[in-house]
C-alpha cells in the first residue's frame, strides 16, 4: 500500500471525469516541510504558526518568526503556503499568556483565543505581520485568519498587515510580490454573513474540526462525545453544502482544512457536495489522491443530493456501499 501511495507522488490528482482536485497539506513545523516533496502535495493549505508559540517559553521574537517563515517558504519553492495567524489562547495555552487567558475561560474553545486575542493584543499580530511580510520579500504571501466570527474582524486583521506593509514601503524594503488574504470559517455565525464577507476574500477555508464542535455542541477532544462528533452527520454535510453554494459566483478559492478531508469517506462526501480543495495531514495525501482518481464527480454529487434529501438515511453506510460497489478502497 505504502509503495502504491509513494508511486502517486508525481501523479496529479484528477478525478475519473477529469477535474483537478487540489490536495494540500497541513503543517506547523519546519520539519513538516519535507512532506511536501515526499507526498507531491500541491502546497501547504494550512501552516499553523502557533506551533512555534506553543513550544516556546517566551513570546517568539520577530527575527525568530521571520526565520521560520522564510525557511518554510524556501522549502516550499514554487508551491503556495497559506500561513494562518496565531491560534493561541483557549485550549492552546501558552505560558506567557496563561494567567490572562485562564482568568475567565470556562469554555476555552469558545473563549478568548485566535483572532479575538490577536486583535486585542495588537502588538502580537503586528509583529507577526511584519515577520510574514519580510519573510515573503519578492514572493507571494497567503495569510489566513482563524476564528473569524464577523466580517469586521477580517477587515481589522487585514488592516494590521496593510499598515505594516505601508511602513515597509516607507523604509524601501523589498515587499511581497502580492498578498492574498483569506479567512477560516469555523464559527458557524460567519456562514450567515458570507454575502458581506466573500467580496473581500481571496480564499475561504473551512476549519471543520472547530466548526463541527460548535455546530453539534460536542467538544472535539472529549472521547465520551466521539460518536456525536460526526463529520458524516446530515447537519454537518448540509451546512457545508450550503457554504459551498453560497460561494458560487464569487472569485474565492474554497477549501476544507480540517482533518475530515483526510478521511476517505469524508473526503468522498466533500467531493460530492462540491469541494475541490482539501488540506490534510501528510499521511493522508497518498490515500486521498488514490481516492480522487477513482471518483466520478457527477455520480457522487447526484448520490449525495439524494441521500441528503432524506435525513433518516445513514450517510456513512450509504457512502460505504457506494464506494464498495465501485471497488473504491475506503479503509
Ligand atoms: C479546524 O478547526 O478545523 C482547523 C483546521 O484548525 P485547528 O484544528 O488548528 O483548530
Ligand atoms: Mg480551528
From TrEMBL:
<comment type="similarity">
    <text>Belongs to the PEP-utilizing enzyme family.</text>
</comment>
<protein>
    <recommendedName>
        <fullName>phosphoenolpyruvate--protein phosphotransferase</fullName>
    </recommendedName>
</protein>
